[in-house]
């Protein structure tokens, strides 16, 4: 250590006694190369350990990859996570069952609606009210999930281009994603972290004009999607960087617990919406896109096809909602005074709150309703003791909530089985032995979201 | 514990005269029964030991969930249980809310999991990972590890539950059977302190390497950790201000 020729280029950390440590902090590459040449590191064929991330534009978030390189070849890659750990699961144990939605929606922030849905489906199973969720709420849930699937897939595809240096792919993808977020914002009031799906139904009915906005989105969405296809599908650089890269076959997927587009890229048409339907998915007409290339390009194609399938489902949802008429006789929250959170909201001078009709009802007409309102808002409802596991097909794969109740007004334990967390384990299997440059499309093809990985 | 000294009595003591007027159907009598229901009431907003802001906290009905389910279990559960066998390794089987849970003796877990994966009648190829749960009141079996298995061949799900005492928090690792459990077991070690014997590298995964304690355990408080940033030390959120 003490023989370091340049103080700026080397670090003599007593803990890093395994070999020479070079700290690179900007433009001092010349000094590093000179120092390494002098010490003979390059000639001896030694492996170089490099930290990629956690602040690196190509790692898809605050992901740190510990790379062992032999020249340009990745000898070993170990993902290090935890930089975005926020204790969502722990926090949920200290809030009511309904408030839990506000926390879990922030886990994987690119698919908030799915986090909420998985959690709410588990809570509803614990309450034993799965069959009593109003039809309208189920349709709205499916609609929201498919809108969110589009925005999430675009949040995966667009950076996939950006990380390879293709900024146009990013801006085109972001354009379409922005349209999707506009619709989500119109319906929930927020672009992300919606807290819209609630145990027993959804927070609120669709606002006026929502179906019209969805129809407009459907048209412009298909056009922008075609543009994206034209831009990427046959792009020689994109194909060269993605075809045959990040190979993961069916056997490896099974062993590593990999689901979603990565599993369907191996040729297995496994989709929980078809195999274990929830929220009435069995009544919708859509296909499960499959490829058998097992590579990053196949995963990209599957995501693009799934966006089209989602558009199909969204059109069916809006048709059904349009046929159902007004919301007054068609609730979006379970008709159970002990569980159903007031779901008719309106915008007042001090923000969004219960509608004047609801206030008039509880303050002027029904003492019972006032008591129920007070109990629900202050202490929430109790959930019978037990545990439930509800799994849904998120854009990234099987997203599940394992929810345990001790009979109280707050969750005893909530665990989100996040697909990104599980899939990041496969980086080593996909990338070791390949080039460093192929690591970037490999990570992008997993589409990990660190909010979900670290929770 | 700085909680309230004594939880208020949940209703009057039953010391009334046992005369003919105490008919069980009288409304007053019914109300008394309701008050005597096994609810632990610890005051209204006076939660002292947790930074709970949800209003009434810790109001719980102590109604023990069922422990065991009699045969037939219904659905595909009987087939799975028959094919699995292992009467000595499985302590009990619970079918609840359409889900089946096998409570497995911890030393037999890898054996049971391997059979669940390999037997043609079972074929649970996919493991959804481990979820830890801490039950400090379940003396001798405080730490639970819950595994959810999925069979794509048969389109079925089962749950395995294993427990270990706090004093000896060891559970055999399932990485050899389901490699996907690698990170999940690290997470469960990190959050609950369950040591998975045979894991290739059981290190912390979400918390920093030098972290003390296992944050998801029930005896670990929410908050309570001061924030350190560039030399300045900011008190933990629950110590910054008194809301009471």
Explain the overall architecture.
The complex is a heterodimer of chains A (455) and B (244). By secondary structure, chain A is an alpha+beta fold. Chain A has helices at residues 29-39, 88-92, 100-104, 112-127, 135-163, 167-188, 210-232, 236-242, 250-256, 261-264, 272-275, 296-324, 356-365, 367-378, 419-423, 427-431, 436-446, 450-454, and strands at 10-11, 21-22, 48-52, 64-70, 73-80, 197-198, 201-202, 345-348, 351-354, 386-394, 397-405, 413-417. Chain A folds into 2 domains: 10-80, no CATH class; 88-340 and 381-454, Cytochrome-c3 Hydrogenase, chain B (Orthogonal Bundle). Chain A is built from 18 helices and 12 strands. In chain A, strands 3-4-5 form a 3-stranded antiparallel sheet. In chain A, strand 6 and strand 7 form a beta hairpin. The longest helix of chain A is centred in the N-terminal third of the chain and has 29 residues, at 135-163. Helices cover 18% and strands 23% of the residues of chain B. Chain B has helices at 27-35, 77-84, 109-118, 181-192, 237-240, and strands at residues 39-40, 60-61, 90-96, 99-104, 126-134, 143-151, 156-164, 170-172, 195-197, 227-229, 232-234. The model of chain B is unreliable at 1-22 (pLDDT under 50). Chains A and B meet through helix 2, helix 9, strand 10, strand 11 and strand 12 of A and strand 2, strand 5, strand 6 and helix 4 of B.
Which labels suit this protein?
heterodimer, A: 455 residues, alpha+beta, Cytochrome-c3 Hydrogenase, chain B, three-stranded antiparallel beta sheet, 18 helices, globular, disordered N terminus, B: alpha+beta, Beta Polymerase, domain 2, two-stranded antiparallel ribbon, 18% helix, 23% strand
